[in-house]
Amino acid sequence: MQRDPQWTEFVELSGVFFLHAMAMGAWFVPLGTVLDAHGLQAIKPLAFATGALAAFVSPLVFGAVADRHAAPARVLSALAWATALATAAVATALEWGAHPWWVLGWIQVMALCAAPTWALSTSLVLRRLTDAPRQFGPIRALGTLGWMAGCWLVSALDADASPRAPYAAACLWLLLGCLTLRLPCPPPPLLPEKLTLRQRLGWDALALLKQRDHGVVFLTAALFSVPLAAFYPYTPTYLRHLGLDHTTAWTTLGQTTEIVALFGLAAVLRRWRIKWAIAAGLGFGFLRYGLYALAEPGWVLLGLTLHGFAFTLFFITGQIYLDQRVHAEWRVRAQALFSLMTAGVGSLVGYLGAGWWFAYAQRPGQPGWPLFWGGLAAAVALVGIFFLWAYRGRGRGAR
Q1: Which helix (H) or strand (E) holds 53?
Q2: What is the pLDDT of residue 2?
Q3: Measured between alpha carbons, how far is 137 from 13 in angstroms, rounded to an integer?
Q4: Tell me, what's the pLDDT at 1?
Q5: For an engineered disulfide with 165, which of 116, 127, 159, 377 has Cβ 3.0 to 4.6 Å away?
């Protein structure tokens, strides 16, 4: 009989996800409106792209460190503190009216520190579970609740467009660094005497792409992240256009359904093959943008609620897939590669491409929102068709 986490262990693991996501939500969701309020609209696409640039470098590097040299909890703690300092520097630069390139530079430093952290949190939680499909969802749901709490905190402080938002995020990163010091630190595995530079940088994880299904999952994740990248910077602006204020709080509708989906994920994975769970996530992603394209507040809010189903069924199922199908010695690097493909490759193309597509969709005398969101819905549909065609799987009933 498989062992469930003890109560104290469950609280620790849930607390890691809760604080981590709370810090990310307090930073990421209001970032676009904070930059707009300080006249920095010109650097907004570049500011969101900093996370994508960072994801090309730091997740694999620190994933390799956590796999081979140091306990993931200690690596995560150090990175959380470094992220807190960089986030506070961004807030200070905004308050002092620093040059836009100084603000962007500090955002890039913050992104380099933060980029590996979610893969590290996921890996250290998964390695302490004995039945990830059944146990991971409820623990990960606390992360979603943390993201919502971060958004609520920003709106409660009336900081949706204020430097107080990144200051609050910096405090939360500091708390996360302290919490991870309490986690157990198993010794790293024995290593060969000599490691190549490629191994030390974590780039040997690219070998995972050679296995067909692994490659399809990684590539689909990157492709899906391209249209998904427009959701975060443009949803708050869209809600304001429709007359819905307190945008940071409104966006938590997607996290509400994400919690529901996380608690139901174990039942879904018992009944469905991973292929169909991932395909369902892509389907919800298509419906979300299709409803956005209707440009009516009620339909848009309904589309916003579908974000939770799309995110959970695709991205969380993808992380569980890697935990089940990749050898234990490679799992931190596999999660890091997943971050690189989603937050790196996909998001970089998505953030920069979304800026171009948004400008192209504008029409004189009328808003271009229906065309903007409709085009993104079509892109998600193409990704779904590719996945259904390319993924093979182990066959019905296989674990």
Answers
A1: helix 44-55
A2: 45
A3: 12
A4: 41
A5: 159
363 SS3 class: strand
CB atoms within 10 A of CB 249: 17
What does the block give as tokens for 310? 């799309």
What phi and psi, each to the nearest 5 degrees, are found at residue 363? -125, 140
Sequence-distant (6+) residues with CB within 8 A of 194 are: none
Q: What distance in Å separates the CA atoms of residue 220 and residue 230, rounded to the nearest whole number?
A: 17
Distance between CA 399 and CA 392 in Å, rounded?
A: 14
Give the helix, strand, coil percentages of the chain, each rounded to 5. 80, 0, 20
Query: CA–CA separation, 265 vs 309, rounded Å?
Result: 10
pLDDT attached to residue 205: 63
pTM reported for the whole predicted model: 0.71
User: Can you tell me whether residue 392 is helix, strand or coil?
Assistant: coil
Say which amino acid occupies 66: A
Taking alpha carbons only, the member of 90, 261, 253 closest to residue 165 is 90
Q: Which amino acid is at 169?
A: A
**CA 258, 262, 266 angle in degrees (round to 5)?**
155
Alpha carbon distances (Å) from 124 to 115, 326, 332, 365: 16, 15, 8, 52
Q: For residue 131, what pLDDT is reported?
A: 74
Q: What are the 10-residue block averages of pLDDT along the chain, 399 residues in total?
A: 59 86 89 86 83 71 54 82 95 91 94 85 77 77 85 85 91 92 63 53 64 87 91 82 74 81 85 90 95 89 91 89 76 76 83 84 78 94 94 57
> Residue 331 in contact with residue 321, Cβ under 8 Å?
no
What does the alpha-carbon distance between residue 340 and residue 321 come to, in Å, rounded to a whole number? Answer: 16
Q: What whole-number distance in Å separates Cα of residue 164 and Cα of residue 153?
A: 10
Tokens representing 385 are 């068709």
Which domains occur in the chain, in start order?
Answer: 7-183+201-390 (1.20.1250.20)
* Cβ pair 51, 172 in contact under 8 A: no
* CA–CA separation, 283 and 302 (whole Å): 15
C-alpha to C-alpha distances, 86 to 142, 186, 242, 317, nearest whole angstrom? 25, 29, 34, 32
pLDDT for residue 120: 81
The dihedral formed by the CA atoms of 220, 221, 225 and 228, expressed in degrees to the nearest 10: 90
